[in-house]
Design brief:
Blueprint lengths: L25 H21 L9 H13 L8 E2 H11 L5 H12 L9 E4 L17 E4 L4 H4 L9 E3 L6 E3 L8 H4 L2 E4 L4 E4 L4 H13 L5 H4 L13 E3 L2 H9 L1 E7 L1 E6 L5 E7 L6 H13 L6 E6 L8 E5 L5 H11 L3 E7 L1 E4 L4 E4 L2 H42 L1 H10 L3 H12 L3 H8 L8 H26 L1 H19 L6 E3 L16 E7 L3 E6 L13 E2 L9 E8 L3 E6 L3 E6 L13 E2 L12 E6 H4 L5 E6 L3 E6 L11 E2 L9 E7 L4 E6 L3 E6 L13 E2 L9 E7 L5 E6 L3 E6 L13 E2 L10 E7 L6 E7 L3 E6 L13 E2 L10 E8 L9 H9 L2
Parallel strand pairs: 8-17
Antiparallel strand pairs: 1-3, 2-3, 4-5, 6-7, 8-9, 9-14, 10-11, 11-13, 12-13, 15-16, 18-19, 18-21, 19-24, 20-39, 22-23, 22-25, 23-28, 26-27, 26-29, 27-32, 30-31, 30-33, 31-36, 34-35, 34-37, 35-40, 38-39, 38-41
Helix pairs in contact: 2-3, 3-4, 7-12, 7-17, 12-15, 12-16, 12-17, 13-14, 14-15, 16-17
């Protein structure tokens, strides 16, 4: 190596001595420089201030619009004008970063309460970017005025801009806790923040409570703050996770988009997505669903359409007729961003915007209250100073008017304005400010009314000064003002939540997590079509109505089973051949009131001639139950322990060994000490204690319950659990009545029974019967005919009569051939009108 390239030439000891050059350890220099850079990113770019919830770029955008006068009541201006103002005076960065920040402030799907109102293309939830800033226009949103209110009253500190040529606020006065209302995200150096948006009404209710109870716990505040409220809606599944997040500042919650299953006109079902999780790209979501279908990871989807428009999101996913739409929906939650998580990391700048810190919910609210306390105090100090200055001038004017002749004489004798000022000060001991005001006073002030105005204004100012002094002397008065401001904000901007919160956590994927546990009416037709319909679809009507269309049945098909349940309940299906199957209610396709439903073999492994004859809701009835009590149409009964049906295979279990010619028709849960009531088609009934029937295994055939004559058959078997009960009987031609069970004596099992009704050609045979308990008065009676007509009427409309009577008309048949097929008791829903069927039924049939 030559001497010219020798490392010795670069030895620091050989360099000439320069007093301005100082040695520095490179490790120390790198550490110091990197920390300075990190703090610059943290404080000046990435993290929001806890007081106004804004990053510097957002604060500068709003301040620039404020200085330009682009308020919510002004005209829209080009976005480029705002961006130019910001980067030219306050923000030493590129125009794209400023414009991107302003675009986000205007996006309704990004901000819960947008601070900028945009006109033009400001991007979409599909990830489309905004148009160039030369094309779009913007102005402040109405709510933004609350962020800048009292800015000119020295409420906050102003600092020099990047080159010292302008002044900008270090923080905004902010009547709104924007940090919680709109949330915030940011990635700094060594730390990050992720704060979700919240509902304004809930946050201000919590602020008011904390203001009145400064030692309130976070648990108390959570009475008001239910959880995040995202602009895109959705459903949050959380309970303890939310509490952890709000108590510590860190945590994670699960968000699911809102989706429902609807029946289409062609009989197929469709999954309709109307809301998606926060910060999820809709176009990416749709593309992901399409990929999963192509890869056959999700089977059963036939068509995928995005029908979203300005009115809102609507993604339609059609599924095959024989598919389970709720299971497909569950797969969508599991495999796509339709279910996402949001991680709390509430890091924000405190101590005047200089110190990053992880805060919990209460600490953030306390910081905002402290900020508003300082703003109100400084505003009051400013108003006091201005009032005192004005009062000082008014006192001088008032005193001058009392000596106006001498004042005029002094001014006239003075050689010039400056001399006149000095003479007034010397003669009357006015201050310089008062003397200037007197010299500027107009002659019209000498008028009597004008003099009175000065006196009135002085009195008003002196009163205002006392108010300000009282406020500054009493912190409680400052808090009272703050509370009044909170009330005003609530009144002007309070709104309802967009995001629903369900207080449960999702430890696993389960269809019950995405399906509301709504009240349902499940119906099964003779030909084996099943569906579920919301119970509130059927509006109560007066007794004697003709009913509304309840199902679209084919010729010779009619409803045979109709019962009330809930989505999350489990059902045991008993077949005419004595087998048992198990199915959750939500797995049954939901359909419209007039729809036929779907064939049962799609859900249950039925034989060709096998029909569902009894359905039992084991979820709602198993409390206190020990046995399943069964009855056939031939009068055979059987009692089997409920435990024997705890695990039902997909292919079903044998429930009873049937005798030749008989079919299993009724199954109910009993305690072992109940009474059994059986009613026959020819109007006979028998009541006996179930203790007369011993428990048998599943393959057993059972024993005789009632002795039938000729072609008579059993039409109802029910359980009596109280002495204060009645028997409801409905005949085929729509007549019905109730009779106290006291009129039915207890008999031994296997007898012929006693008369239950006076059977005539007018009444027809007995169509069905039900035990009415003392708490069933608040129920409605629902009847359905073989031609598919349904009527729902309060049970109290059916009169109580003796055993041998015919009853009254409960449902009028539209045709001579139509007959009552089945009946059901469901809880009465308050608030629903008992309309006149003659008026409302025709309109309902057209729906």
């Amino acid at each position: 190596m030559s001497d010219e390239l020798s490392p010795q030439l670069f030895n620091a000891a050989d360099l000439p001595v320069n007093p301005r050059i100082k040695g520095q350890n490179i490790v120390h220099e790198m550490e110091t420089s990197y920390l300075d850079y990190a703090m610059s990113v943290i404080v000046s770019r990435a993290l929001p201030d806890v007081r106004d919830g804004l990053k510097p770029v957002h604060r500068r955008i709003l301040f620039a619009m404020h200085k330009l006068g682009i308020t919510s009541g002004a005209k829209f201006v080009k976005s480029a004008r705002v961006v130019g103002e910001v980067i030219g005076k306050y923000h030493p960065h590129g125009d794209s970063s400023v414009y991107d920040a302003m675009v986000r402030l205007a996006q309704e799907f990004s901000m819960r309460y947008p601070l900028v109102k945009g006109q033009g293309n400001f991007g979409s939830i599909d990830g489309d970017g905004a148009a160039a800033m030369r094309y779009t226009e913007a102005k402040m949103a109405a709510i933004t005025a609350e962020m800048l209110a009292d800015l000119e009253k020295e409420t906050v500190n102003f600092v020099d801009n990047y080159d010292g040529s302008f002044r900008e606020p270090s923080v905004l006065p902010a009547k709104l806790p924007s940090l919680l209302l709109n949330g915030g995200t940011g990635i700094a150096v060594g730390m990050a923040t992720n704060i979700p948006p919240h509902n304004l009404t809930e946050i201000f209710q919590a602020l008011k409570y904390l203001l009145a109870n400064l030692d309130a716990s976070i648990e108390e505040l959570l009475q008001f703050v239910k959880g995040p409220d995202f602009p895109t809606g959705g459903i949050i599944y959380a309970s303890s996770t939310l509490r952890v997040a709000y108590n510590t500042g860190r945590g994670s919650i699960v968000i699911r988009g809102r989706a429902s299953v609807e029946e289409m006109k062609n009989g197929k079902s469709a999954i309709i997505i109307t809301e998606i999780p926060y910060q999820v790209n809709k176009a990416t979501l749709v593309e992901k669903i399409a990929d999963l279908v192509r890869e056959k990871r999700i089977v059963g989807i036939t068509e995928l359409r995005d029908e979203s428009n300005r009115e809102g999101i609507r993604v339609v996913i059609e599924v095959k007729k024989d598919s389970f739409p709720n299971k497909i929906l569950n797969q969508l939650y599991q495999l796509t961003p339709l279910q996402s998580s949001f991680g709390f990391n509430m890091v924000t700048l405190t101590e005047g915007g200089l110190q990053p810190k992880l805060l919990n919910l209460k600490e953030i609210l306390e910081e905002f209250i402290a900020h508003r306390f300082e703003v109100i105090t400084r505003r009051t100090q400013y108003d006091l100073r201005i009032a005192e200055e004005r009062a000082h001038i008014l006192e001088g004017l008032n005193r001058a008017l009392d000596h106006i002749d001498r004042i005029i004489a002094v001014i006239r004798s003075s050689s010039n304005k400056e001399q006149a000022k000095l003479d007034l000060i010397a003669e009357f001991q006015f201050s310089e400010i008062q003397a200037d005001a007197i010299l500027a006073m107009r002659l019209q002030t000498l008028a009597g009314l004008e003099r009175q105005k000065i006196a009135d204004e002085l009195a008003e100012k002196l009163g205002f000064i006392k108010e300000c002094q009282a406020i500054l002397a009493d912190p409680q008065l400052v808090r009272n003002i703050m509370d009044q401001e909170f009330d005003e904000i609530l009144k002007k901007y309070g709104d309802e939540r967009k995001t629903e919160i369900i207080g449960q956590e999702l430890d696993r994927f389960d269809a019950t997590d995405v399906i509301p546990n709504e009240e349902m009416v499940v119906s099964i037709s003779l030909r084996g079509y099943i569906k579920r319909v919301p119970a509130n679809t059927y509006t109560p009507q007066n007794r004697g109505g003709k009913g509304i269309k309840g199902a679209q049945t084919e010729d010779e098909d009619y409803i045979t089973n109709l019962f009330y349940t809930k989505n999350h309940n489990n059902l045991l299906f008993f077949t005419s051949l004595g087998r048992c199957f198990r199915l959750a209610v939500y797995e049954i396709p939901q359909a419209s009131r007039t729809a036929r439903g779907q064939a049962l073999p799609n859900f249950l492994n039925l034989a060709g001639d096998e029909k569902i004859t009894a359905v039992l809701d084991v979820t709602s009835k198993q409390e206190g139950g020990k046995y399943l009590f069964m009855a056939t149409n031939g009068g055979t009964i059987k009692k089997t322990p409920l435990e024997d049906f705890k695990n039902v295979r997909r292919n079903g279990l044998i429930a009873i060994k049937l005798r030749p010619g008989e079919l299993l028709e009724w199954v109910n849960i009993t305690s072992g000490e109940d009474f059994i009531m059986m009613v026959s088609r020819e109007g006979k009934s028998i009541k006996f204690n179930e203790s007369e029937v011993r428990a048998m295994g599943r393959p057993a055939s059972g024993v005789r319950g009632i002795k039938l004559r000729g072609q008579d058959q059993v039409v109802e078997m029910d359980v009596v659990k109280t002495d204060k009960a009645a028997l409801l009987v409905v005949m085929e031609n729509g007549l019905g009545k109730t009779t106290d069970l006291a009129e039915y004596r207890e008999q031994g099992r296997g007898g012929s029974g006693v008369k239950v009704a006076n059977i005539t050609n007018k009444t027809g045979k007995v169509a069905g019967a039900k035990i009415i308990n003392e708490n069933d008065d608040a129920h409605d009676l629902m009847l359905i005919s073989k031609e598919g007509l349904i009527i729902r009427t309060p049970l109290k409309n059916v009169p109580t009569q003796g055993r041998a009577t015919q009853g009254v008309i409960v449902m009028r048949m539209k045709t001579n051939t139509d007959k009552v097929s089945s009946l059901l008791l469901i809880p009465h829903q308050e608030g629903e009108k008992e309309g006149n069927l003659e008026e409302i039924a025709p309109a309902l049939e057209l729906n």
